[in-house]
Description:
Layout: H1 28-50, H2 58-127
Amino acid sequence: MTYTDPSLHPxxxxxxxxxxxxxxxxxxxxWLVAGVVxxxxxxAVAFMxxxxxxxxxxxxxxxxxxxxxxxxLVEGAQVGLQTGADQxxxxxxxxxxxxxxxxxxxxxxxxxxxxxxADAAQDAAATAPAATDGTAPSPQAxxxx
Length: 145
């Protein structure tokens, strides 16, 4: 697509078009830098593969083992304490449930005995002869109704 300026007359002489060529020239400097980086990387990898870590002395190994044992004992003791605490809590909860159940049972038995005693007292009052002089009646043998 071409752009034509509307302010220019079509008869006006045109300027010749310019052609611009872009030439890229390669430089050996980029290849030289890449080669140096590659050589440094190969040397670094070779150094890492061939270097040995420092050998730990037997005293250091024994000390590390002892620290590991101590840490294991402490952790085991903590687990034991936690387990014991959990078992004690469960036992206390079970005892509380049993005590509540026993108290409820005793309460029901006491209510039944109180009701039985009240019924017996009411029956005794209904069957006892009335005394007119304010004294208690003498004991009598049970009489059929």
